[in-house]
Amino acid sequence: MSTDFQTAREALGARLRELRAEAGLEGKELASRLDWQTSKVSRLQNGKQTPTREDLTAWARALDRPDVEPELHGLLAGLDMKQRNRSWRRQLAGGHRGRQEIGVKLTDNTRLIRGLEVSRIPGLFQTPEYARVLFDALAEFRGIPPTTDAAVEARMRRQEALYDPAKSFHFVLCEAALYHRPCPVEVMAEQLDRLYNLVGQRRIELGIIPFGAQLRRTVPHAFWIYDRRLVIVETISEELWLTGDEDLALYERAWDWLAESAEYGATARRLIGRARASLDLS
User: Does domain 1-83 have CATH number 1.20.210.10?
Assistant: First the structure.
C-alpha cells in the first residue's frame, strides 16, 4: 500500500468521523442505523478500510446529510493512485474542504517539499484572508459549493508543518506572483508582509525569479514535489499526480534549473518589499 494511498484514505476516514461526531452519534449507534458491525464503522473512520461508493452514500444518508455525498465521493476518487489525471470536477464536487484535508495529510507524510509557483503565493505561505479570496473565486468559477471556512481552516492547519524541525520547504516564485493581485489591496499588503517575514526562516528556502532574469529553461507551470516520490501539477481542468521515475527526474531537473535563476535572502526581501511599496493603500 502506497504512502499516498493511505494518506488519502486517512483523510476520508477523518471526514467520516467528523460527520458522525457532528451528528452527535457514537460509532455503535451509527452502526445500528446502517445495520453494520461496529468494527466496520471503526475501520472506515480510522482509515483502515477502503469504503465503496455505496458505503459513503449510506453513511451520509444515515446521518441525514445527503448534501455531503458528492464531497465523500470526491475523496474516494482521490484514493486511486493509478489515476494519473484527477478531474477537479470529481474531486471538488462537494467543495474544497476534502482536497485540503488530503493536502494536510500529504504534508504530514513528507519531509521535503519543493515547489514552483508562477502567479500566486503558495498555499503553505498564504494568509487566511488571501486563501479565503482564492477559495471563494475558485468555487464560483467551478460552480461548486463554497466550503470556504472549512477549506481555510484546513489550509492554516497545514501550515503548522512549517515549524516542524523534521521538515524542509524549498520554494521558488516568479516575481509576477508578487504583483498578480486576486484580492483587495489591503489583503495583498498583509500577504506580502507575511512572505517578507518568511524569507530566511529555518527550514524555509524562498527564492524569487526576478523579471528579466536569464533562465536555462523557461517557466512551464506551477508544480510541487513531495520528497522524491510524487509530483503534483495543477491545470484548469485536472490535477496530475506523477510518480514515475522519469517524471520525477524531469521535474527535479526543472526545479533545479529554475532555482538557479532565483534570488534569495536580502535580495528576495528587496523584491518583495518593492512589490509591497507599489500597492496603493491610500
Answer: no
Which sequence spans correspond to the domains of the chain? 1-83, 84-282
Q: For 249, which DSSP code?
A: H
For the sheet containing 204-209, what is the strand order? 85-87, 238-242, 230-234, 223-226, 112-117, 168-174, 204-209
DSSP state of 263: B
Give the model confidence (pLDDT) of 219-238 as tens digits: 999 999 999 999 999 999 99
252 burial (CB, 10 Å; 0-12 / 13-18 / 19+) is middle
Query: Which CATH architecture describes the domain 84-282?
Result: 2-Layer Sandwich (3.30)
The overall pTM is greater than 0.85: no
C-alpha distances (whole Å) from 16 to each of 5, 81, 146 are: 17, 21, 20
